[in-house]
Amino acid sequence: MGIHVGKEREGRHLWQITAIRDILWLLLATILLWLAYQAKNILLPLLIGLTLAYLFNPLITWIKKRWGISRLLSIAIIFALVLLAGGAAGIWLGPLVVNQVETLLERLPGYLQIAGERYGIEIGDITGGLAEQLRSGQEGTSSLFELAGRIVGTTTTILLWMILIPVYFFYFSWHFQGVVEEGQRYLSLDRHPKAVTVLRRMDEAVGTFFRARLVICLILGVVFAVGWWLAEVPYWFLLGIATGLLNIVPYVSVLGWGLALVVKYLDMTVGTGAPGFEWMAVLLWPSVVFAVGNFLEAWVLTPLIHGHTTPLSPIVIFTLVLVGGSIGGFWGLLLAIPVALCLDILAKEFLWKRDRK
């Protein structure tokens, strides 16, 4: 009997050994991730389109069940409504954004000059170095060609993304529910009860997190913009919307608060007609607006929209944000919490329960 088993083991191929097969799968996944990272500029529009399809899939499915409208027509309606809303917002708020950007660009050199004189920063060295680079670029034909190539490349990439993201979103949204149903048939509750339970919990946690954060970001952007307009903070619309969008990552919106304090301080202290520093106008009122926004997020918006708080403690979330940002930059910041939520579910299902047994 032992000889027969030994011969069977000797006759097996290398990839039929469980440990070797797991290592090969891990190596293949690592290579695919590396290739995806190298081709990130090409794959990012696809990933964004797939993410949007994932986020909108419950709404599209609900419209089909509620009114019997086909998925294709539902996607077209949602796409048209988004374009109309974006166009209306651009027509209404576009002049305001352009005006604030132009004002910021006009006042920025004066801000830098006064700040350099007040705090001993050699702004002249920075501007001189920039001017020297521009002069050398003008003298060198290769530098001009390189600069023109970068401009053309960046413009082409932006235009390509503007085309590819809607196309990918449309295609993935059209077939998303079919793929989900096919996966549910493969991972039936009778065959894989544990896998089905874990995947459902992970889908609920990640989907709820992103959908809730996006809605909260839009509401907080309006709150911050209106509040800083009442507090007479310069560039209130740009700062408000940017700070609201930063709320998609916990604790990162503090950067917007800091910028609001800085621009309010510069507006009141720089220039011949500046009224001078007043601590209530510079520090108190912008901070009150930021505090009100955070209070609404923590005690009203998150319980109302999210339905429940994340199982991760605040110190864990703060640490994850720092680690994710240091490892993956913006995408690390964005994905740190969802990845942690999935790992928390896996740990509770496969580690903690096993330890308790």
Descriptive overview:
With 357 residues, the chain is an all-alpha fold. The protein folds into 2 domains: 41-186, no CATH class; 190-357, no CATH class. Helices cover 86% and strands 0% of the residues. It has 11 helices and no strands. The protein has helices at residues 2-11, 18-38, 40-67, 71-119, 123-139, 141-186, 193-230, 236-246, 254-269, 279-306, 314-356. Helix 3 (40-67) packs across helix 4, helix 7 packs antiparallel against helix 8 (236-246) and helix 8 (236-246) packs antiparallel against helix 9 (254-269). The longest helix is centred in the N-terminal third of the chain and has 49 residues, at 71-119. The two termini are 35 Å apart. Residues 1-9 and 126-131 have low confidence and may be disordered.
What does the main sheet amount to? none
Q: Could you list the spans in which at least 5 consecutive residues all have pLDDT below 50? A: 1-9, 126-131
Number of domains: 2
Structural class: mainly alpha
N- and C-termini, Cα separation: 35 Å
Order of helices and strands: HHHHHHHHHHH
Percent helix: over 70%
Strand content: under 5%
Identify the overall geometry: globular
Please, how many helices? 11
Radius of gyration: 27 Å
What is the strand tally? 0
Report mean pLDDT, rounded to a whole number: 78
